[in-house]
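ESCALATION

Customer reports they have been waiting on this structure for their group meeting. Please prioritize. Original submission:
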Amino acid sequence: MVAPWAIAVLLCFGAGALTAGIVPAAVEQQQSVKQSAQKPTPKKAAAKAPAAMSLPPVFESTGELQRFGVRIVSPTRTDEIAGRVSVRAEVATDRPSAVVAVDFFIDGRLLFSDAEAPYELLWSSGRPAAHVIEVRAYGPGRQMVSDTLRTSFATPASGVAGYSARVERVELHVRIEGGDLSPDLPARSAFQVYENGVEQPVVSVERVADLPLAVGLLIDHSESMLSRLETALDAAGAFIDGLLRHPNDKAFVLGFASVPIVFQEFTNDSERLAESISLIDDGTYTALYDSIVVAARRFEGIDGRRAAILLTDGADSRSDHTFQQAVAAAQRADVALYPVAVDLSPRFWRERWILGELAKRTGGRLFSLGRQTDPKGIYEAIEEDLRAQFRISYAPIIAGGDGEWRDLEIRLRGPDGVDRRVRTRPGYFAQ
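Update from on-call: job pushed to the front of the queue and completed.
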């Protein structure tokens, strides 16, 4: 028989065991239900639920344009492509200010990059031919849209005149090295002009002491120039202030890194030019040769003594065009190249050779600009070089041509019978 006190103890411990085993389980189940109720809905479930959104999440996070397109509005497929052509593109977007640039490609080669509307390329296409014209517009991030136009060309029927031009007279600007002969104009007979080694009849010689200038300022802002960019930009501002003295002087500003971009078209407003220079920022690769080709196109239809000043270190790493094509573009446009090697050590002999050849083959000169160099001396030398010259005209014995290159040599005999050294462009393409 169990004592009453034992029964009381058993009941007491049994209730504790019941409380320890059953109540915690109930609490745990209640907490589990509560946590399940508070757990957020999975992303996939949220995506299924309809929600009103002004922009998809990708546009919110990257800033890309929701409506973005480009099309070529001129020329059209039926237009005849010959001579000087205006290629125009229109960009459709909800945020025009977000368009970074529009690139113009002709037959697969980049000719121009325009950073602001209206987007236009003035293209000297030469003789009638079929071409592929492509424009690419760039938006924020990696956004890019494009449009392509293929033009056709039918050979003119018999008896219909084709596209041709004949060179009846060649005009040269000649600089006498080592100072002028005298205040008097040298006699016409003192100059001898040789074309492909054959002497040509000189028609006229005149002194031009104050020629209006048309200058392109090409500024390298690639990664290799980062430590020298401030020096280059300061020099560019000094060149603008020093060169634009004549009422008819004008200049444009082109910056080049991965692609050439025109920051300011031709103008004689020094404030606008200075403001455009201040917009130039750090870049990456160097498209030096492409920038020369694009710059040469800007001189079409521009009067004055043509020159392009290149503030660079001479290291091309990105161009679609070659060194030879860049030189040919400058020669065709009669643009003298004046490279300014910015803080370039003598050990970079290859870059110095390239810059020197660009100058030599176009009738310009090479200069060096260090951190302690006053750019005033450079732009004064360039200005004197361009303004104080002789203009010689001669009639080629063989007029016209098929676009072939003709070498030129100018000789000048002084009153003392000694030949003087003269500098001019090394030749021209006869059309």
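Sent to customer with the following note: The chain is about 25% helix and 30% strand.
Escalation resolved.
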